[in-house]
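Duplicate of #3305? Posting structure anyway:
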């Protein structure tokens, strides 16, 4: 084993062990934290076996030979389940264990076949020729498993982004980079496996992945620390399917309407809640809070988030994000037209209305008015500042 390989080997295993111990020591671990803890535990042993395999030392260890194969079947499910729980999309707990059946099946097959599949020649152990097909199928299987779970994880991330828009009035502070890095990092590993299935490539790629996961995970609030989350992301089922009603009117949504007809609020109750919502927004100016969420507003009205979501979508034809930001835009238009506010630049006025960034302000203003803030000011013969 060369000195460079030694360094990469020790570095990769050390980082994996460090991250495992770091998250293991985290207090009050969530379900997602526990999944990540177990994942790093298996990743640590996987790196050891890959390193032994790449250095050729595995050929001197008949009891370990071949046992690197079940681990790749586990990384895809761990990635998928971590994204499920960290994004709040879980529906059940124990039934998720079925995702690990392929890994268990491979381990069982190895336990049965390895005693006769591994043969010794000149003091080194290798695979008997008659078992080549079986092991090739196992290797092909974990490649397919990885690709499937990366695709499923990307879908979960897409759905999570939509769920956030339905619940948060400002999305700029919600950083999804951590989940993106996990998914794309795993994708890079699988590409390395597909196009260069040799340890000299695989091990450095996996080591770099673990290093960057550690780097970005430590920077991401709440992954390896006990930092509190400012706002809870409600489960999609909690706010139900009616959040799509204001976004599209296609046939699929009409099917959902029929499916969930029994859970709908009757029109008189919808009208009552809608009237209370309008009064609340006009009197308390809730939209001025840049961190306002669907759950926060539902608490003020003393109703379930699902009911509030249904009212906004059915009565306003908008999702929560667009509904709140439309109030912010209209309030900004009122403020900027007042002569006494000419001394302030428009971005400071936008922040006063609840926007959290210049980008968010410009994007939502354009969406609501079909013109930029500067064009609006020019239309009213106001000199733009800021």
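Output from current build:
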């Amino acid at each position: 084993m060369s000195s460079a390989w030694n360094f990469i080997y020790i570095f990769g295993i050390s980082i994996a062990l460090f991250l495992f111990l770091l998250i293991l020591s985290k207090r009050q671990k969530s379900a997602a934290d526990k999944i990540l803890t177990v994942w790093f535990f298996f990743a640590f042993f996987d790196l050891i076996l890959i390193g032994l395999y790449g250095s050729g030392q595995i050929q001197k260890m008949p009891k370990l030979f071949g046992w690197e194969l079940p681990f790749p079947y586990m990384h895809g499910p761990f990635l998928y389940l971590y994204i499920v729980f960290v994004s709040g999309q879980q529906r059940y707990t124990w039934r998720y264990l079925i995702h690990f059946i392929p890994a268990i099946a491979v381990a069982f097959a190895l336990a049965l076949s390895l005693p006769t599949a591994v043969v010794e020649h000149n003091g080194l152990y290798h695979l008997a020729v008659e078992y080549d097909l079986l092991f090739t199928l196992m290797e092909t299987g974990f490649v397919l498993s990885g690709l499937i779970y990366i695709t499923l994880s990307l879908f979960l991330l897409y759905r999570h982004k939509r769920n956030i828009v339905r619940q948060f009035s400002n999305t700029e502070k919600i950083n999804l980079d951590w989940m993106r890095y996990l998914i794309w990092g795993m994708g890079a590993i699988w590409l390395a496996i597909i196009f260069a299935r040799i340890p000299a490539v695989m091990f450095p790629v996996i080591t770099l992945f673990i290093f960057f996961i550690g780097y970005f995970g430590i920077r991401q609030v709440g992954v390896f620390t006990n930092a509190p989350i400012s706002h809870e992301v409600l489960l999609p089922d909690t706010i139900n399917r009616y959040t799509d009603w204001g976004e599209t009117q296609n046939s699929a949504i009409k099917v959902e309407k029929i499916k969930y007809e029994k859970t709908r609020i009757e029109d008189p109750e919808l009208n009552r809640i809608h009237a209370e919502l309008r009064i609340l927004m006009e009197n308390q100016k809730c939209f001025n809070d840049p961190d306002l969420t669907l759950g926060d507003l539902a608490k003020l009205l003393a109703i379930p988030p699902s009911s509030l979501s249904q009212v906004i979508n059915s009565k306003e034809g908008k999702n929560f994000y667009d509904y709140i930001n439309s109030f912010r835009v209209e309030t900004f238009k009122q403020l900027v037209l007042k002569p006494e506010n000419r001394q302030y630049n428009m971005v400071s006025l936008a922040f006063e209305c609840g926007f959290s960034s210049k980008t968010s302000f410009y994007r939502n203003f354009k969406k609501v008015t079909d013109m930029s803030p500067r064009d609006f000011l020019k239309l009213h013969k106001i000199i733009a500042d800021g």
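Confirmed duplicate; merging threads. DSSP finds 16 helices and two strands in the chain. Residues 3-219 form one domain.
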